Amino acid sequence: MNGGSLGWRQRFKPSRFLIGEAPAAGPIQLDQRRVFILPTRQGLLFVLLIVLVLLIAFVYNNNLAYMLGFLLASVFFVTILHSFKALSGLVVRAGQHQPVFAGDQALFNFVLHNPGDQARPAIDVSLREPRTIRLRPGETQTVSLAVPAEKRGWLACDTLTLSSCYPLGLFRAWSPLRFDSRVLVYPQPAKLELPFPETDSGPGGQGQSKREGDEFYGLKSYQSGDPIRQIHWKAYAKGRGLHSKQYAGASSLELWLDYETTPGADAEARLGQLCRWLVDAEQAGRRYGLLLPGVRLEPDRGAAHNQACLSALALFGLES
């Protein structure tokens, strides 16, 4: 669960105390190898108090002062053990992570298990922002930590740090953990609501008009992605609101979304527009295919197909 033993050079490598050991794929159990302890500011002041009390006892040869100094020192050293036990024995593993769009918050999920009969009252769990949790004896708890997803592609998990100053705040015990875990970030959908391509352009460049062979069926409320030429302008002019003409058989036509013909100032703008069309087409119940340089996904619909298309956009031009 924790891997093999470490050599002396690896054991005292400074990076172990800051970012942890090599990333692990499975669960990690915290033991003496992974838990580090140092006095806090309050702990150093407590040491100064002990020295001062013992100095007074030495100068005035006061037995009560000696007793107080030794009592404080015993509390100080016993606290080290309790601080270590606040983290020792915990089992931590990475959970399932859901893909997100660029610009959103990616959630990294971690499962913490307390196998012993000791309560863990104050544990700080942090990737970038700390979150304090409490674990009862035998309890398993899932913790979700947010990280900004700034660009598309794979977002690797940062170092997860568990820490505690329990029980008196004199020591801080911490354990930096690294997991072989990542979140897929889709391109950010374009904000501009452009209609779908006017024709269903297939791989051969031949298209079929969306209205060809279809009969007028009726009107429906305008939805994002409806072609501009299907808008019923007469109804809009009469103040009846924005509606789209509906044709029998139109919903069964296959929509091809082609990177080469997608408008955009650069590659990221094109991918953002394709991402927007994919989301709108799925919501509209359309069958759609995706064409990228070197990638072709046949027309289909559904959550699995939508995720496959969005994943292709996320990893386009990047090393997976």
TrEMBL record:
Stretch list, region Disordered: 194-213
Domain of life: Bacteria
Keyword tags: Membrane, Transmembrane, Transmembrane helix
Membrane-crossing segments per the record: 43-60, 66-84
Protein name, entry field: DUF58 domain-containing protein
Naturally occurring in which organism (per UniProt): Methylomonas subterranea
Lineage of origin: Bacteria, Pseudomonadati, Pseudomonadota, Gammaproteobacteria, Methylococcales
